[in-house]
User: Which sequence fits this backbone?
């Protein structure tokens, strides 16, 4: 392992002197990791991608291998190392919301047998943080890290309950297919803005939201918002299944169930 003076020496190997030496070295080290992540397997390719000499690249890579951020295999070359795997899992586990929500999501899964999601808003989309696959019906296409339109999903509507009507309409407008019907499901009848607006006002009053096959045919869900200590909506949870397993009567019965679980999870966040 190089000492700090050795690492500092690496900073002057190129003509890029905009950043302080230590910062430049750090960025180069991160550049090596990014290059390997993008598929670079040897020093020549890594050096080309990050713009350093072969000797500087070798010293950086050797340091990263020693610290387990990279590994090197014969006949293969450089690969991402076990330390990055550990940190990735740690980062996910340290996300308080995902960690706190898990037992509540498991509770809903055990109670209903349906697919259960935890998601947050990311721009104009829903970002799924956790998914418990259901026992009822076929597997949903949603997955952790997957994004869906806010205005078309039940969990997205739950995230929008505090938003102004103008925001609902903006998100509705950008989610509507350019043609009259969605080319993926040409037989599926799209909801009009007036219908969506009326439903959203109902959801605001009730503190929940439905997906009535709005995002894709045959999929329905019941959702509720999660609030933090400031009472701000920070996430949503949903129970979803295919139409045969999610009739309207069951959806109505699930509203108080998911709202009660959402309230308890919100309390864990100070809400």
Assistant:
């Amino acid at each position: 392992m190089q000492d700090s003076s050795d690492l500092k020496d690496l900073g002057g190997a190129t003509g890029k002197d905009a950043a302080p030496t230590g910062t430049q070295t750090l960025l180069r080290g991160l550049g090596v990791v990014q290059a390997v992540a993008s598929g670079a397997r040897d020093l020549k390719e890594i050096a080309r991608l990050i713009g350093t000499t072969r000797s500087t690249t070798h010293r950086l890579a050797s340091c990263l291998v020693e610290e387990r951020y990279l590994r090197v295999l014969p006949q293969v070359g450089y690969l991402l190392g076990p330390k990055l795997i550990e940190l990735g899992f740690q980062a996910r586990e340290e996300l308080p919301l995902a960690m706190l929500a898990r037992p509540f999501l498991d509770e809903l899964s055990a109670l209903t047998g349906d697919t259960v999601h935890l998601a947050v808003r990311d721009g104009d989309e829903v970002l799924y943080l956790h998914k418990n696959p259901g026992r009822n019906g076929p597997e949903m296409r949603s997955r952790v890290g997957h994004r869906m339109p806010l205005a078309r999903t039940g969990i997205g509507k739950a995230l929008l309950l505090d938003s102004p009507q103008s925001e609902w309409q903006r998100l509705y407008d950008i989610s509507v297919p350019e043609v009259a019907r969605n080319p993926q499901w040409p037989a599926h009848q799209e909801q009009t803005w007036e219908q969506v607006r009326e439903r959203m006002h109902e959801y605001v009053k009730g503190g929940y939201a439905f997906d009535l096959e709005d995002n894709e045919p045959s999929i329905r869900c019941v959702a509720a918002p999660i609030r933090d200590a400031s009472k701000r909506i920070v996430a949503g949870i949903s129970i979803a299944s295919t139409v045969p397993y999610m009739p309207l009567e069951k959806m109505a019965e699930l509203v108080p169930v998911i709202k009660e679980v959402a309230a308890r999870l919100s309390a864990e966040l100070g809400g």
Notes: The radius of gyration is 24 Å.
